[in-house]
Amino acid sequence: MNNKTLIASLALVAGMAGVSATVQADEPHKTVQPSSTNTRELVENDRAPDIYMRSDKAIDWKAKGLKAPGEEEQWVENNGKYMRVKTTNGTIVEITPVKKK
């Protein structure tokens, strides 16, 4: 092979490698969302489902006899338990059972 053929071949291979990387970079990332039927028991320091970070899910903690939530926290009810949740990141700060009357 002469130098011109060798250089042309290398340029072609390098160009194909660059196009291949570009095509791969444009593919969307495939992700799987957590199942809505996930039945794993939540514990303190877990991340609560996003729905519990919404203000419309907050319960009246005074009426339920719960202690005051901290700044950017709220009490929510989930499966017979009260959870104190940080509204900024969803961390469960405290879990207490619902008191039966």
TrEMBL record:
It holds the Pfam family RcnB. Residues 1-25 form the signal peptide. Keywords: Signal. The keyword Signal applies. InterPro entries: RcnB. This is Lipoprotein. It comes from Pseudomonas fluorescens.
